[in-house]
Specification:
Blueprint lengths: L8 E4 L7 E5 L8 H4 L6 H11 L4 H11 L5 E5 L44 H26 L3 E4 L33
Parallel strand pairs: 2-3, 2-4
Antiparallel strand pairs: 1-3
């Protein structure tokens, strides 16, 4: 956890001709003090939750992968824990994970316990962290498209070998490497 204000993301430049953007959304454990105050868990329980919810070492994996590429990709790294905001979730009713209290702003933990109070107002967190992150990510993608004619986004995640109670689709296989696509964004 942090006591000083931190930037909520970093764009690490790659080769000007690279269309690839490595996105590392969940690798940080940093929670600003003003956000920590709205979390109900004591310090020990919060550390356990961070152990469960953080995609540990993904920033390092992305950096090593980037260093090994002949055409260095760009990297977009979330500098804050997803317990602040989850930049990959929709901030509205489109987000299915809201059903378990894990929309863009989490209200519940991985074990479905209360993370924030029932009257918690998520709007300040969305305004301070989520929307600027989304705008900057859009700008990074637009810049790759402008420079190279396309953008290839590779999300860098990790996940536990056994499903956690919050997972809505945790019964499927858990392969060592998972490559997924989105029909809206991925051409055939």
């Amino acid at each position: 956890m942090s006591t000083a204000p931190q930037p909520s993301f970093r764009l690490l430049p790659g080769d000007a001709d690279s269309p690839v953007l490595l996105h590392v959304p969940h690798g940080s454990r940093t929670i600003p003090e003003e956000v920590r105050g709205g979390i109900l868990l004591d310090d020990s329980a919060l550390e356990r939750e961070l152990d469960h919810i953080t995609d540990s070492h993904t920033a390092e994996l992305a950096a090593r992968a980037s260093e090994s590429c002949p055409l260095r990709p760009w990297s977009y790294v979330n500098a804050l824990s997803r317990l602040v905001v989850d930049p990959e979730r929709f901030p509205d009713d489109r987000e299915e994970m809201r059903a378990v209290g894990m929309g863009a702003v989490y209200t519940h933990t991985t074990h479905r316990e209360r993370l924030r109070g029932p009257d918690f107002d998520q709007c300040p967190l969305l305004d301070r962290y989520f929307h600027p992150y989304a705008r900057a990510m859009t700008e990074a993608v637009d810049a790759r498209i402008a420079a190279t004619g396309r953008a290839v986004i590779v999300d860098v995640h990790s996940y536990p070998s056994a499903p956690l109670p919050y997972e809505l689709h945790g019964t499927g296989p858990r392969p060592p490497v998972c490559l997924g696509t989105d029909p809206f964004h991925t051409p055939p």
